[in-house]
Amino acid sequence: MPSWRPSRPREEEPPVDRPASSPFTAHRRLRELAESRGDEPFVLEAHEDGSHLSYAELYEQAARLATVLRDRGVAPGGRVFTQLGNRWESLAALFAASLLGAVVVPLAPGSSADDVAYAVEQTQPSAGLVLGDDPELLAVIAESGLAPSALLAATADPGSGLVTIAAATAEATALSDSVAGQITDLLMVSYKAGTSGWPNGVMLTHANLRHAGTTYAAMTRLQSGDRVLVSFPISHIAGLGNMVMGALWSGAKLGFTAPGRAWIETAARQRSTVANVTAVDVRELLAVEPLDPQPQELRLVVFGPAVPASVRQQFERRFDTELRLGYGTTEAVAPISIWSPTITPDDECVGEVFAAQSLKVVDERNVPVAHGEPGELVVTGVPGVTLAAGYYGRPDLTEAVFASGSLHTGDRVILYPDGRLKFLGRTTETLKTALVSISAVELERVLKEHVGVVDAAVVEVATADSAQIIVAFVVLSEYHFDVAEAELAAWVATRVGEGRCPDRYRFVDVLPYSAFGKILKAELIRTWLT
Length: 530
Hints:
Elements: H1 26-37, E1 41-43, E2 53-54, H2 55-71, E3 79-83, H3 88-100, E4 103-106, H4 113-123, E5 127-130, H5 135-143, E6 151-153, E7 163-164, H6 165-170, E8 186-192, E9 200-205, H7 206-220, E10 227-230, H8 238-250, E11 253-256, H9 261-269, E12 274-278, H10 279-287, E13 300-304, H11 309-319, E14 322-327, E15 337-338, E16 349-353, E17 358-362, E18 374-380, E19 390-391, H12 395-401, E20 406-415, E21 420-426, E22 430-433, E23 436-439, H13 440-448, E24 453-462, E25 468-476, H14 485-496, E26 504-507, H15 521-529
Parallel strand pairs: 3-4, 3-5, 5-6, 6-7, 10-11, 10-12, 12-13, 13-14, 25-26
Antiparallel strand pairs: 1-2, 8-9, 9-19, 14-15, 15-16, 16-21, 17-18, 18-20, 20-21, 22-23, 24-25
Helix pairs in contact: 1-2, 1-3, 2-3, 4-5, 7-8, 10-11, 13-14
């Protein structure tokens, strides 16, 4: 059959509950662990002094924060904007929102001013939690409709006028668990790059995050003795849904780290057993000189997107661990595929479809294609449970992408009879570099906002070593031929954020257009390759 769902169980799968087996919302799972494990550490080295945060302490902080947010006007169904990064306060905000029956709207600290303004204006939060007292960020938030009096900060200078989270919660009492929430209630709006030039807010429920976590736990065989090291941003489904929720539902411990040298040092210090990296991180970690001590207990590192086999093998030798490629999308919620010991990895395969997923590959007419034939990947499931609930404020896009209860991913793939999945690229204008997604339309819009640019097109191309890079083709105004690549790069970085910019720029006299006014991007790719 063209669709594929394995009937054989994974021998290595731990007995992890599935979302339908329990009515627990996110904070009730944490409360259960707080009651059963109490002072046992959950977030390792959560504080600057290196001390851990226990299950009971995190629940207490979340309950106190819930009271503070309630007093600032956050009601059931209300939104809470956060831009805290990978800190325990981000987790407290999530569980506080869960206690209130509210919705958290997290953005990474490196998000552009445009993205922050768009998210705040679209979701209209009643309160916000930010990392510090950056005046430019605070101005953007205020101009977007969220008053400074509604904000709390992780850190702030006394003269900034901002109240810190610690000061606010120190005086608060813990909120009782009184909201009768359901696992299908909305808990999070996760923004990702969209094809309109502006990000799309993917709506995720309690059931979604539990499904992501339990699936990831089964895929990686997480157990209560594991120590999970998270470097992906927890504003992203890969960081929060997979790794944080995977740890929460399996009973594993959790630690946060930055990429690079800090990743190695933290993995060694925390004795991490499972971790994640991006393809860029893999190369950067190999460039770091050997450290003493090295991580000794890593059994599995999940990464994406793909790197050449030689790089993967070098990483496995260096860190004495297994490096597995994982593949998924925010809308699909849980990982779709992962390399397993039963298949031979190659540079084009993104793994074996996991048993929890049901999918098919279709052509342009939405007709399933045969195994081994290319087409668009469609994941079937239940919106709001095993698939995202849709796009915030975009019923038109929700209807188009989640047609008939199936997710049309926009990814071109080949599905083989044995369950292996080969990724061919995107059918949309969304580009992916490492963990970050960015819309080509957004990059083109930002480039054309520069006074010296009259036209621009952005494409993704493969290099000789199979890496994917983003290339911007730029047509300059006749009055600004002196605009340099460095100036454009800085212009884009300040508007979309570091790590979301083109890797290369090429100046051309004119862009190729079709008779219908569409840029012929295939020609640009061929131009770059030749």
